[in-house]
Design brief:
Strand content: under 5%
Structural class: mainly alpha
Largest sheet: none
Oligomer: single chain
Distance between the termini: 141 Å
Radius of gyration: 47 Å
């Protein structure tokens, strides 16, 4: 059995054969990844300024996002010149139901529907309108004075065949009216 003679090793073996090469390889292996990471961070930072939603942090955009859903507007109501007439009060509140006959409300001008009610008298009809009756809410669902409601009841009843007089304003109201 013969063995081949071994050759003596001649210096360091591998990718780097000298200490200078080892130093250069170490520095390059650290500098290149750090440079790549720095370039990626700079690129990512430049993208955040160029995106479509870049104005999302502006003061106007923030104000739009936190704006309330609804707004309440308060308007000054001009002083009325006095209580409404029966026709004005009827058109303002009563017409919504009595024009269409909703929920059993007698229609305006329907003499058959009003004949039994007219016999009860204006005071009873006005009381029903003021305090509510069957499906009709109190004050006919509006915010009117008792005088205006009584005038509306007289107007509506007269359209159905009654001969009620529209009540006049009390003396105190008549004196204060311009």
């Amino acid at each position: 059995m013969s063995q081949a003679p071994k050759k003596p090793a001649s210096g360091p073996s591998g990718p780097t054969s000298t200490p200078q090469q080892t130093m250069v390889a170490s520095v390059v292996s650290l500098v290149i990844p750090v440079a790549i990471i720095a370039l990626l961070l700079a690129y990512a930072a430049s993208l955040s300024h160029q995106t479509a939603g870049a104005d999302a942090m502006s003061a106007q955009a923030t104000a739009d996002r936190i704006m309330p859903v609804g707004k309440v507007q308060i308007k000054l109501v001009s002083a009325s010149t006095g209580p409404r007439t029966g026709e004005q009060a009827y058109k303002a509140q009563c017409a919504a139901c009595h024009d269409a006959g909703m929920l059993g409300a007698p229609k305006i001008g329907d003499t058959a529907a009003w004949s039994g009610r007219i016999g009860q008298g204006l005071a009873t009809l006005a009381n029903h309108a003021i305090k509510g009756f069957k499906a009709m809410p109190t004050q006919g669902g509006g915010d009117m004075t008792d005088l205006e409601i009584t005038r509306a009841a007289a107007f509506l009843s007269n359209a159905g065949g009654a001969k009620f007089e529209e009540p006049a304003a009390p003396a105190a109201d008549a004196a204060s009216a311009p």
